[in-house]
Specification:
Elements lengths: L9 E5 L5 H12 L4 E5 L4 H11 L6 H10 L3 E3 L2 H13 L7 E6 L2 H12 L4 E2 L4 H8 L12 E2 L8 H11 L5 E5 L3 H11 L5 H28 L3 E4 L2 H4 L4 H8 L4 E2 L2 H18 L3
Parallel strand pairs: 1-2, 2-3, 4-5, 4-6, 4-7, 7-8, 8-9
Helix pairs in contact: 4-12, 5-12, 7-9, 8-9, 9-11
Amino acid sequence: FAKDTSTNVVISYVEGLTDGRDFYNALSEISERKPVIVVRGGRTSDGAKAAASHTGSMASDQKIFETAIAQAGAISARDPEEAFDFAAAFATQPLPKGNNVLVITTAGGWGVITADEISKSNLNLMKLPNNLLDSIDNHLPPRWSKGNPIDLAGGETRDTIPNVISVALKHPKVDSIIFLGLGIQGNVARSYLESHLRTEETERMANFHMSQEKRYAESIVQGIKDYKKPVFVASEIGITDSTNPGPSRLIELGSMCYNSPSSAVRSLEALTKFSAMDNGG
């Protein structure tokens, strides 16, 4: 897989090792070329017993194992779901240059939850530089949060979200963005279209909301391409309603809609750690 040009990310499942040195050397060699994500079975005492019963291998101490994985330049994932989240990040996002994260949210509560998750990671919920704050202030109503997370305060106009994302990505201090709330307008549109009180006017409004969702997704993907910085989108709507025009358009364009702030934060953290290792950090 290290030499396979069609493979961008490697996921490895490991229980016990008969030759730890060979495994370490192989990981180190592959990690110099592409990201390697390792999922370990037998992390707990019960899991180790289960692993021994079906492979006959003995699992090593988890902390020692994780330290070796990190020294080899690979990334540890807690379970297969997280491994696939990480792999999607590596396959669809550019590597960040640093750990400064900006959170943009259409609902305050999601921003708070994301801030909590970032505080438990190696990422930095950056303070807004004055010039960035002033630039964002030009696009939002006076009641917006004036800080990071950037709570849009329900003041979105047609161009607010694309403009704020572009302004943020353009700033040299911003290394990455987590965007929360894609799909909300699509949900509103669905309620209009499914209502027994549906009228021509509500149908027109629904069509506008759906077109906006697609536009938000397109502006996010375009921003990633233009500024070569990662933008992680988290919205449970991507799971609960696969037809919602926001998340579905994002996925159609080859990006990922994470189902929670925590999964987005941990995936961005994995990307940031690998970038630091790749740059000798």
